[in-house]
Amino acid sequence: MSFVTLSALPAGILFALVTSITPGPNNTMLLASGVNFGFRRTLPHLSGISVGVVLLMLSVGVGLGEAFVHFPVLYTVLEVVSVAYLLYLAWKIGTSGELKLRNGERRPMRFHEAIAFQWVNPKAWMMVLTAATTIHLSNSFGMNAVAMAAVFYVIGFPCICVWAGFGTAMREVLSNPKRLRIFNVAMALLLVGSLYPIALKLFGHGG
């Protein structure tokens, strides 16, 4: 029976801390959501991100990561879908005074939507695939995934709350519609900028 190796736990905690607190699609959208909707209304978005990353990590543990190893084209397809969806989100953020979703309804991302987004979030995939192959909390690949999922949840949730909280703190400053529009355009550009590594990989080989 395989147990968690506590000697590797500090490395797992540090990895979860660094990857969760640094900028990426999730944190950029949480910052924008905090500004546009406040912290309380952003809580389902926050919770959905944490649960989504956990489910992604667990799916890698039960063999999804192996599919990418044996069929690399699947990862390329995922990257193309991720780029397309993130460009769509960037456009929605940048062209409105508030985040808008279907039927013109103005609201933050819902819990289930935030979970689903992790499956097309390139940074989330990088986090879980790297953790699965480099952080060894257990000799069992499956148990390692379970342990890292727990670490990501415990460490990651407070980290992403910081971004939503910072956005909420900026609400008064950005209460002016013109400032809010500028802010949302800036967030859209940052979201597009987060795609640079993928774009370089997909289109940079011919240069």
TrEMBL record:
It is a multi-pass membrane protein. The keyword Lipid biosynthesis does not apply. Keywords: Cell membrane, Membrane, Transmembrane, Transmembrane helix. The chain crosses the membrane at residues 44-64, 71-91, 146-170, 182-203. GO terms for molecular function: amino acid transmembrane transporter activity. InterPro entries: LeuE-type. It is found in: Cell membrane. Pfam families: LysE. One of its GO terms (cellular component) is plasma membrane. The keyword Ribosomal protein does not apply. Its main location: membrane. One of its GO terms (biological process) is cysteine export across plasma membrane. This is Threonine/homoserine/homoserine lactone efflux protein.
